[in-house]
Amino acid sequence: MAILIVEDNKVSARFIEIILQKDEHQTVTANGAENALEILADRTDVELIISDIVMPGKDGIELIQEIRDNPSWANIPIIMCSCLLDVTTVKKAAKSGCNHYLIKPIRKAELLKKVNEALGAETSGDRI
User: Fold this and answer.
1) Using an 8 Å Cβ cutoff, are 108 and 77 in contact?
2) Domain boundaries, the chain
3) Which of 10, 34, 83, 106 lies deepest, with the highest CB count within 10 Å?
């Protein structure tokens, strides 16, 4: 099973990859929302999505909405990672269906905690 990292910043994407791979998770990286949707269409082994919000083209909130609207992907847990910490953005993310919201810069322990929580909540549909 794989964790899909959706991040347009290559350094941030690699940082998340390294943390997850050291914790023995398989990862696949998309450089934006459109690329993420292509990966989801091609792969059935994605068990978790970690996505930035601010990206060129479709943003992370729009990505969540498309994922939640697709019955094949609707139950995949989603962790949003963003430098946006205003209440409006967090509420939008929660309303769209993300399970967890992390503020950048990401801390390793917090990321791994949320990943483990999200994977454990995969079938329960828990949200933020």
Assistant:
1) no
2) 2-114
3) 106
The domain defined by 2-114 folds into Rossmann fold (3.40.50)
77 CB burial (10 A radius; 0-12, 13-18, 19+)? buried
Region for residue 79 given its phi and psi (left: phi exceeds 0; alpha: psi -120 to 50; beta: otherwise):
beta
For range 94-114, the mean pLDDT? 95
Give the DSSP H or E segment for 24: none
Query: For residue range 43-61, what is the model confidence (pLDDT) as tens digits?
Result: 999 999 999 999 999 999 9
pTM: 0.92
User: Which helix H or strand E contains 101, and what residues bound it?
Assistant: strand 100-103
